[in-house]
Amino acid sequence: MGPAELELIAPMIFAIILTLTIGGVILLKPIANKLGHLLEAMAKERSEPQLGAEIGHLRDLLETTNARLSLLEERQEFTEALLNDPERRRARLPGSDPKDVGE
Length: 103
What we know:
By secondary structure, the chain is mainly α. The protein has helices at residues 3-47, 51-84, 86-92, 98-101. It is rod-shaped and about 130 Å long.
């Protein structure tokens, strides 16, 4: 290959390299952007542990405990109301009523 042939081939090689470079940038830029966002999200997730899931689980546990405590309070109030009812007290233990003992 002589210098004359290289002068003819050089612009074609330059045009091919320029076309491949521009095409590669156009095709790979969106993929590189998505990869960058993915790596950023992964780094952020590693730096902040799964607090959202743990907080949600704790919230569910607290709601369950609160519901059970409310039910227990209702049962306690119902039991106290039954035990403090004077007619039930007389019917349950006839003769052991403190009012009857004083008479």
